Fold:
Amino acid sequence: MKLLEERILSDGQVLGDEILKVDSFLTHQVDTKLMQAVGQRFADIYRTHNITKVVTIEASGIAPALYTADALDVPMVFAKKAKNLTLNEELLTTDVFSFTKQTTSTVSISRKFISPDDRILIVDDFLANGQASLGLIRLIEQVGASIEGIGIVIEKSFQEGRQSLIDKGFQVSSLARIDRFEAGHVVFAEADDASLDKK
Amino acid sequence: MKLLEERILSDGQVLGDEILKVDSFLTHQVDTKLMQAVGQRFADIYRTHNITKVVTIEASGIAPALYTADALDVPMVFAKKAKNLTLNEELLTTDVFSFTKQTTSTVSISRKFISPDDRILIVDDFLANGQASLGLIRLIEQVGASIEGIGIVIEKSFQEGRQSLIDKGFQVSSLARIDRFEAGHVVFAEADDASLDKK
Structure:
């Protein structure tokens, strides 16, 4: 998505070899118009999939997921992160390890919000090693709902997450794909939605 | 806001004497159209205040805050909650005690996203004892930005939060105000935006 790539180039900060900070428009301060365009793009990609629910994980996945759900006219559900969660039958739960924070969180969704008939689009702000998306997939698979695809705002293509998801047979749609950082600058790989950008 | 009150009556669950569960449209699963209407309502109330930024706290404040910011055409910033946060000069931080969870969290906003010239509207999903809103106020006051008001989706009017905020001179705009629970049902007080509902 050209608009997103341009924004990453102008406002993203490359820190060290692996970190891209986009807290001025995505992960802390949020540009609502950009997120609306992101949501519209995911909706365009998955329009024919009869999506019934958009699922994400708190907190920075919520903004892009909300506008995607809005554009598809379906509810959005955000999974919750907690440490030492008291398990109960009403919750779908799984453990997710964060390489960044070196901590394990329990991620949960109330069972009542996912049914076997659902056709789900997962949306998240970042895809790196794929642990968050794989965790959401494990939750949804407990119910047997269909996972139609995984919409990612920014993918770090030099980490293994994308391949892990594709190996499991999932469609991954990343609107910006970072091939590498070169001398503090972002070098993009072709985004999955490149054909939808206006010429 | 009539639409919101009706939704609380139809889909909210009263648990015990003090808990209203609205996880089917606000705090876990999110109804995007209802949130859009909520955001539009806050924008209508604060239209003349020249708001420059909408500030909330993760995670369930994000949806109503996002649509409010969208309707006012300004950025949204969400404060982050962490335990044992490493303090640094770039962060505004304060401690917030949660009566529900009986835990203290450090809430933070990057200093670069709040300037003394900002005219801020705080938006949150719930107002009970007011600790979250008071925490956000402390963060914003560290910078000296103007706090134009506090927009609340659901207020528990039988708890002290509203009065604490009003005592400090803040305008509180609650779209649904719960006076009390009676035999498992919600009894509303008049909402602050009642005059804006169509007859």
Notes: Chain A has a mean pLDDT of 95.
